[in-house]
Amino acid sequence: MKELDYKKYTEKLQSFLTEKKNWLFVAGLLGILLIFLSEIVGTDKADKVQPTSATQTTAQSASDYTLSLESRLQAIISNIEGAGNVQVMVTLENSEEYVYAQTEKSDTDVATQAGGDNTSERVSYENSYILVEGTDGKQALVQTKLEPEVKGVAVVCSGGDDIAVVKRITDVVSTVLGVSTNRICVTKMI
Length: 190
Hints:
By secondary structure, the chain is an alpha+beta fold. Helices cover 43% and strands 31% of the residues. The chain folds into 3 domains: 2-48, no CATH class; 54-96 and 147-188, ANL, C-terminal domain (GMP Synthetase, Chain A, domain 3); 99-143, no CATH class. A hairpin with a 6-residue loop joins β3 (102-112) and β4 (119-129).
């Protein structure tokens, strides 16, 4: 009985494949199957790692920048006479910014009408980014990286109740970070 079923199915398959419409259908199914298989088989470890988005990278680097500022400020302030134990918190106004290299083309067309009385001048400018080959394809060339702007600084220290110590700390933080003194708060640690 199995032999009859086998012959029956092969005959149906042969009759199905003899029509041109069915060949196109089968070719389409095979194409879809190959695409599906290439997705499963063709992935390696590098493809499985999800790249971080630009916002995640920027947030991470801003966080790293903040921690670096805080630890450096803490080291400096702890060496100020009378400061004692120190904890520092820095807040940022924005994240880091990039300035990209550009090329600029300008064209000037001067047109004079017959008779020479009327002249018109047309100037056109065209800016474009300079692209370089990167790991993810072509990328704009970074000319300058601007660090985030400091919004405010809080310093909590043992000597925060002494006005002379507060003045010295405020002056140092203002000078080091280039922020105004009204963005710096120094207070006594409990």
